[in-house]
Amino acid sequence: MCGIIGFTGTRPAKDIIISGLERLEYRGYDSAGMALLADGNITVKKRTGKVEELKKLCATDEYMATCGIGHTRWATHGGVTDVNAHPHRCGQVVLIHNGIIENYRQLVVEYGLSGKIISETDSEVVAALLDTFYEGDPVAAIKKTVKALSGAFALCIMFQDIPGKIFAIRNVSPMVATSCDEGSIIASDLTALVEFSKDYFVVPEYHILTLSEEGIDVRTLKGEKVEPQMLTVNWDIKSAQKGGYPFFMLKEIYEQPDSIRNTVTPRVANGLPDFTTDGIDDSVFEGCKRVVVVACGTAMHAGMVGKHVIEDVLRIPVQVEIASEFRYKDPIIDSEALTIVLSQSGETIDTLEALKLAKSRGSKVISIVNVKGSTIARESDYVLYTHAGPEIAVASTKAYTVQVSAMYLIACKMGLVKGIIDEDYAKKFMAKLLNAPNIIEETLDNANNIKRIANHIKLSQDAFYIGRGLDYTMSLEAALKLKEISYIHAEAYAAGELKHGTIALIAENVPVIALATQEDVYEKVISNIREVKARGAYVVLVSMDEKVDDPAICDKHIRIPKLDKEFTAFATAVILQLIAYYTSEAKGLDVDKPRNLAKSVTVE
Ligand code: AGP
């Protein structure tokens, strides 16, 4: 999704804007632009392509402007063209926008803006409306404009005749801000802010910010001055840099042991799960008769792993819902259901709206979120923050395993509170969870063996992941990982389903990654594997067997340590992440920034 950065202060703004846009590239985009305000004039430079292209466009310009805004655009309304790139200028106004204005077409008609519009975007309509309302008072014009808008927006605005000032306002779309000795900075997320200050605030919705060299003035639409709630970043700028790895994704795969330790260890007291510091009272679990998990993509897959533990161990029903489906149906949910929302970014619009729907039906909501102070965190009744640090690669890895860990913490706590498990069982369970980082480290030692598999898979058009029970759930995440960064059409199938159609797709050399870590169905999976092997598939078997060299079963065997069934997830997750990573790298693709994808889907 779009990236926004604004700076006004004592230093030249150009390089600050450019480096901020570079830090925001991971959000996914197709165009980049900036606007610099100096001496009563705003210069706008923008074009399709990477930030590198924008740098070239501005290379010869020696701007001394100390006030500017920058934008990376992920196209929603209108194609990928220079004209549709941001910033958009109209008369005295220049602005950048992240979000979707639902009623932009009506606004063009209602306010007769067509003569002012040259692009296909909803954002330019906002600039035209602002310019229409602007008669010298920026706050009045902004108030009138946002009253007319319907939809999500994070806006940074400059007025040509107001030197040194940036105005901002948001609804749903994220923005954070801070000020320091060098000036005032505002951005879509912390990765572009953290080099200036570790203290920041989340821009409150429908408040008008005025950024100047001296600081940031925050006011309600009624003009009341507000002191924003300051937060502190719990990671440093190095966390948002590659640190010698070729791609962020590989760095983040290797960060998983520490991410899990940082997420789990602070929530263990006397060997038992403890949510005291999270402010989650036992009563939250006492009354719940069932659990509804709502999320998107990988976060949803993490919730599905948690479902296995809650249902298998606690016998409490769990339904996992795709957020974009849940929010538009009439869900069967009430106060007897505990809703667990998972989101790395805490800004996924479908997950946010599903959360609001669940709350409106009386269900208590716990969110598992990786970004402090994010919208989903703020809208939830309770938040279980994961401490994975910033996840820059679009393909989620460490966020997934810490989300799984958080689900296991909740499952163990719920079982204890409801008297379904005793302390002895809980302590054994927690000891295994605390051992998860070691499982991952042991699996990472096998990375080279896994890398060789990628060389076989990279030439394929299709790939299949099969398994039963938890292994089927892991296959869903595996297929998504491979699809989203290698562009190979990967599918996950319950191994028992193969004969009901899919096996028709198995031909000579088609790669099938078979997960057989669940001992209770091991033989069943092996017989499914024999069926695909007999039809020429290239089979990679992942299991706890010491060694499997029977050519009738597999071409490659990846061994995982002997583990209790629920904890195999930590080993298979890493194997599946590495298969996807090495396949994408072997294909020479941009592993961190796959085509068409954004890190956080903040618009529908
Ligand atoms: C993960 O590899 C994907 N990039 C995507 O499915 C992601 O998990 C999904 O968009 C949810 O994002 P969130 O966790 O920030 O809500």
What is the topological layout?
Blueprint: E1 3-9, H1 13-24, E2 31-38, E3 41-48, H2 51-58, E4 67-73, E5 88-90, E6 93-101, H3 104-110, H4 122-133, H5 138-148, E7 151-159, E8 166-171, E9 176-180, E10 183-187, E11 199-202, E12 207-212, E13 215-220, E14 230-232, H6 248-254, H7 256-264, E15 268-269, E16 272-273, H8 283-286, E17 290-295, H9 297-314, E18 318-322, H10 323-326, E19 337-343, H11 349-360, E20 364-369, H12 375-379, E21 382-385, H13 398-417, H14 423-434, H15 436-444, H16 447-457, E22 462-467, H17 470-486, E23 489-494, E24 511-516, H18 522-533, E25 538-543, E26 556-559, H19 568-586
Parallel strand pairs: 17-18, 17-19, 19-20, 20-21, 22-23, 22-24, 24-25, 25-26
Antiparallel strand pairs: 1-4, 1-10, 2-3, 2-4, 5-6, 6-7, 7-8, 8-12, 9-10, 9-11, 11-14, 12-13, 15-16
Helix pairs in contact: 3-4, 4-5, 7-13, 7-15, 9-13, 9-17, 13-14, 15-19, 16-19, 17-19
The protein binds 2-deoxy-2-amino glucitol-6-phosphate (AGP).
Question: What does this protein look like?
Answer:
This protein is α/β, with parallel strands linked by helices and 604 residues long. The protein has 19 helices and 26 strands. It has an eight-stranded antiparallel beta sheet, covered by helices on one side. The protein has a six-stranded antiparallel beta sheet with strand order 5-6-7-8-12-13. The protein has a five-stranded parallel beta sheet with strand order 18-17-19-20-21, with helices on both faces. Helix 7 packs parallel to helix 13 (398-417) and helix 16 (447-457) crosses helix 19 (568-586). The protein is globular, with a radius of gyration of 25 Å. The termini are close together. The mean pLDDT is 94. Bound molecules: 2-deoxy-2-amino glucitol-6-phosphate. 2-deoxy-2-amino glucitol-6-phosphate (AGP) binds at residues 296-299, 343-345, 348, 351, 394-396, 484, 600-601. The site of 2-deoxy-2-amino glucitol-6-phosphate has 15 residues, from helix 9.
